[in-house]
Each structure stands twice: as C-alpha cells, then as structure tokens.
Amino acid sequence: MAVEKYLQESVTIKPDKDVLDKAGIFVTLNYLTTSKDECLRGCIGFPLPEKRLYESVIEAAIAAATQDPRFPPVHMQELDNIIFEISILTPPQEIKAKPADYKNEIKVGRDGLILHSRFGSGLLLPQVPVELKWDVEEYLANICYKAGVPSDAWLDPTSKLYKFQAIVFKEIEPRGKIVRLEV
User: How far apart, in whole angstroms, are the C-alpha atoms of residue 173 and residue 163?
Assistant: First the structure.
C-alpha cells in the first residue's frame, strides 16, 4: 500500500502512532511472470536498526520500487504482478574466528552475511544461498562478488565478516495473503 500511494501521489504513509522497535530490514520485490516464475525486480534495505520498523519498511519498499539502480522504477500497472518480501534483521555480529574457520561459523539458510573489505562491502540475505543452492564456500565467494572484490577477499586479514539472521514475511501472490517463511 505504501508503494502504491507513493507511485500515485508521491506521498509517504505515516502511521498514527509509533509502532515496534528499531530494526534493520530489507524489502525485496519479485515480478511474477506469466509462467509463475519470480524474477528480482528490486531490493533495498537498511542492515542496521537505525529507525523504527514501520519507517524502515515504508522507506525501503518505496526505494526498492523506485531507486534500485539495477532496475527502472516500478510502474503502477506492474503492482498486480509484484510479490513483496520483507526481511527483518537481527543486529550483525562480527565472526571472530580465523578466516579459515568461517565455514564452521556460518549456517546456510540461517545466516545472512555482510563483508567489509578495504575495497568494498556487500550484503546477502540468509534466503539467497538457499534459493541459489550454494554451499558455504560458494556463499563466501558470492558475498565477495556482491562487494565487488576478488572471490577470496574474505580470507584477507583486513576484511571483516559479519553474520545476522532474518525473520522473513512474503506475499504468497501479488496483493495476497502474507506468510512467514522458514529460512
């Protein structure tokens, strides 16, 4: 509803009262094709809990629909084919193990990753390696790719790797019922 209101009137919805605490969040938009496949249409978020949850969700949903640099802005007529997914993040925790032991600290499907390297940063949500059927090694290589650094940059002692978990809610169809996903 926030995206629709923004696309129609350039107005951001504001609730009557403050609800829920601060949380990091990501909003993912998937376009449902005629063959019922889901294709990424936008994804924007805030990994750190800097705003109240409702503020972050509204802001990230609008940004995912209008500001993801990988895609043109969503048009009103597309909303009937877009599935919204919201990931509420736990605060990131640095993995303190030696890089060679990271594989023992990361569980695919439970942990999202953030890599901070001297040459770039990247974030992957916990559901991504599950959807793409990656093992931990592929996950580590792809967080580097997302950060724009060599695939073994996670081994660099100056790089920092963080993990977090997510509670994920998703529409089962465009404008449809929302369910909590088990990731």
Answer: 30
